């Protein structure tokens, strides 16, 4: 067996190893860790306004038309950077969905904030409320004049049904257990007939979160609206293939121009094309069954 020797001219015999001390001050960080990002909040103003920053970190907003009208926007500071709430694209899309094909308004009777949307088959009415003042379990939704599922395509316009009760009513109210007090969030008469879902005898409704994207919220304020009562109403129509577009969710509410509903005309056009195709197909089938086609083209 042979033997070999390794001679390192740059190391002395007294060396105990490699000196790593020169790397002691290197800052090592995990590339997967995300840095905290300061994100902006966008505030929408209804009129031209003047904004000024105060020494205590708050922002004073005053309308140019009336200098006496001032409000403070809550904010904080961190290392010289102002932390304000970020408005995500998903929030904006969600708010737009609440009014798709409809509108939003403050109810003239209850002063509740109301959103409503619609498509060919359904109307959804959403009413905002403050969960710190109103417990969701104390909310009740009732409706009258709702047609059974079997009559969903036999509703006659608007006005009165066979019982002379009109198109029905809806009521969203708050009533605590063992209490006679009643607070109405929204109630009124429906402008058109609605029907129950198949094999159901109650209307569908749910409680959902409400996150406004153009309002300044203070957590300690009990009047801040943070929940929605969402009521789903299935549209009843006079006959199959007919669409009824609502101009208002309740008869006492302001109307919208249904001609401005995005996608409405395209939806109606597709339905019309389908109806024409079905009619032509049925006529052709009848002629085939009657033998008219065979006689005309001499088909055995």
Q: How would you explain this protein's 3D organization?
A:
Strands 6, 7, 8, 12, 13 and 14 form a six-stranded antiparallel sheet that branches. A three-stranded antiparallel sheet has the order 1-2-3, with no helix packed on it. Strands 9-10-11 form a three-stranded antiparallel sheet, with no helix packed on it. The chain is of the alpha+beta class and 300 residues long. It is extended. The model is unreliable at 3-15, 66-84 and 159-164 (pLDDT under 50). It has helices at 89-98, 264-290, 292-297; strands at 49-53, 59-63, 66-73, 76-78, 81-83, 103-106, 113-118, 122-129, 139-144, 169-174, 183-189, 194-195, 204-209, 227-235. A hairpin with a 2-residue loop joins strand 4 and strand 5. The protein is built from three helices and 14 strands. The termini are far apart.
Any chance you could write out the topology, listing elements then pairs?
Elements lengths: L48 E5 L5 E5 L2 E8 L2 E3 L2 E3 L5 H10 L4 E4 L6 E6 L3 E8 L9 E6 L24 E6 L8 E7 L4 E2 L8 E6 L17 E9 L28 H27 L1 H6 L3
Antiparallel strand pairs: 1-2, 2-3, 4-5, 6-7, 7-8, 8-14, 9-10, 10-11, 12-14, 13-14
Précis, in short:
The protein is of the alpha+beta class and 300 residues long.
Features:
single chain, 300 residues, alpha+beta, six-stranded antiparallel beta sheet, three-stranded antiparallel beta sheet, 3 helices, 14 strands, 26% strand, disordered N terminus
């Amino acid at each position: 067996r042979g033997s070999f020797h390794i001679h390192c001219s740059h190391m002395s015999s007294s060396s105990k190893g490699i000196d790593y001390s020169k790397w002691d001050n290197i800052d090592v960080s995990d590339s997967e860790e995300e840095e905290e990002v300061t994100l902006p909040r966008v505030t929408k103003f209804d009129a031209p306004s003047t904004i000024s920053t105060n020494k205590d970190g708050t922002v004073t907003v005053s309308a140019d038309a009336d200098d006496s009208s001032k409000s403070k926007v809550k904010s904080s500071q961190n290392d010289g950077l102002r932390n304000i709430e970020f408005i995500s694209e998903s929030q904006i899309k969600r708010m737009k969905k609440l009014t798709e094909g409809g509108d939003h308004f403050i109810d003239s009777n209850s002063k509740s904030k109301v959103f409503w949307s619609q498509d060919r088959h359904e109307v959804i009415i959403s009413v905002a409320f403050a969960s710190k003042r109103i417990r969701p379990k104390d909310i009740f939704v009732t409706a009258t004049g709702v047609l059974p599922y079997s009559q969903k395509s036999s509703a006659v316009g608007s006005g009165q049904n066979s019982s002379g009760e009109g198109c029905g009513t809806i009521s969203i109210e708050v009533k605590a257990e063992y209490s006679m007090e009643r607070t109405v969030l929204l109630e009124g008469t429906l402008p058109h007939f609605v029907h129950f879902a198949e094999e159901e005898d109650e209307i569908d409704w749910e409680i959902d979160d409400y996150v406004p994207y153009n309002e300044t919220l203070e957590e300690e304020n009990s009047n801040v609206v943070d929940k929605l009562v969402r009521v789903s109403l299935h549209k009843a129509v006079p006959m199959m293939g007919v669409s009824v577009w609502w101009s208002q969710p309740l008869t006492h509410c302001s109307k919208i121009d249904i001609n401005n509903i995005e996608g409405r005309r395209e939806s109606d056009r597709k339905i019309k094309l389908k109806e024409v195709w079905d009619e032509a197909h049925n006529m052709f089938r009848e002629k085939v069954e009657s033998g008219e086609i065979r006689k005309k083209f001499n088909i055995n």
